[in-house]
Amino acid sequence: MRFSRSGRQAGSEHVDRDRVLTVPNALTVLRFLGVPLFMWLVLAEGEYGWAVFVLAVMGGTDWVDGYVARRFNQTSRLGRIMDPAADRLALLAVALTLVLAGVVQWWYLAALLVPDLVLGTASVFYFRSHPDLPVSRIGKLRTAFLLAGTPLLVLSLLPIPGAGLYAGAAWVLLGLGLVGHWLAAAGYLRAIVRKGRPVREGRLDDRRGSAEGGEGR
């Protein structure tokens, strides 16, 4: 793995984008692995203290992998897909875990899930796969609010001084995160439609051309 921009040659940027074994991708995999560990700690063991630690590590890797990717030219196509996927999985799985543990209500999980279902449906409709869109600024802020609010909420469940203050701060951050989640989803949906409409129209034109060619035989 290369951790310096020195010695880069023309055309190497394309190779970097296609790489799989990078430090940011490894950190993203670590974030994936944190999801079942968090669920086990909360649902099976009731270890909220360790659960807070796992959430803090997951949130830290979300920032570190982005920094490393930009600072050391370790960006990749796989990373652009895996990183937001890891964020989505973490946020939804953590929300589901907290619902099952009786910490939050079902509406919180629905508020996270519905926009993602809409975006996923639009992506399949236009691209049949991931749209590969850049992360928006509001999307980054949304993720930061949610990743900061969730461990604070779990921390407030511990028998520690100031637990009520932690809970209040957590819900402020989570509320801002949910608003940002819907605003970001609206922006991503517009981007998907704008990028995907020519792709879908071209696909339909190809089908018409193939059908007309077949009739002319």
Structure overview:
The structure is a single chain. The chain has 217 residues and is mainly alpha-helical. It has one domain: Four Helix Bundle (Hemerythrin (Met), subunit A). Helix content is 79%, strand content 0%. The protein is built from 7 helices and no strands. It has helices at residues 12-17, 23-45, 48-71, 77-100, 106-127, 137-155, 163-215.
Low-confidence stretches: 1-16
Number of domains: 1
Please provide the ordered H/E string of secondary-structure elements: HHHHHHH
Average per-residue pLDDT, rounded, comes to 84
State the total count of DSSP E strands. 0
Quaternary form? single chain
Task: Give the overall silhouette.
Answer: globular
Quickly count the helices.
Answer: 7
Distance between the amino and carboxyl termini:
55 Å
Q: What is the radius of gyration?
A: 21 Å
CATH class assignment: Mainly Alpha
Q: Do you know the CATH architecture? A: Up-down Bundle
Helix content: over 70%
Sheet with the most strands, sense and barrel status = none
Structural class: mainly alpha
As a percent range, the share of strand residues is under 5%
CATH fold call: Four Helix Bundle (Hemerythrin (Met), subunit A)
Helices, strands, pairings?
Layout: H1 12-17, H2 23-45, H3 48-71, H4 77-100, H5 106-127, H6 137-155, H7 163-215
Primary descriptors:
7 helices; 79% helix; mainly alpha; Four Helix Bundle (Hemerythrin (Met), subunit A); disordered N terminus; single chain
Compose a concise summary of this entry.
By secondary structure, this protein is mainly α. It has helices at 12-17, 23-45, 48-71, 77-100, 106-127, 137-155, 163-215.
